[in-house]
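Hey, quick one: can you model this chain's 3D structure?
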Amino acid sequence: MCGVSLVLLLVVATRIVRSITVPLDALSERFKEMAEQNDLTARADQERHDEIGELGRCLNLFVEKLHGHHGADQEHRRASGQFQ
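Sure thing. Here's the predicted structure for all 84 residues.
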């Protein structure tokens, strides 16, 4: 009986750990791709209804605001003749 309980515990623990680490790894990889490509138009998956989805929504909001500031800066430089 103890062996069955141990196996069940390991299966449940593995599933819980994977339900956290797999989405975090995917979000981390997406963020890394966005940074390496300097892509301010890309967005992270935010369809989850948990803390990881909230992290994706916050990342997207940050990138959206950064993209807006970058666009405004480029427009200001273009208007002032500083943009090459």
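One thing worth noting: Residues 2-36 form the longest helix (35 residues).
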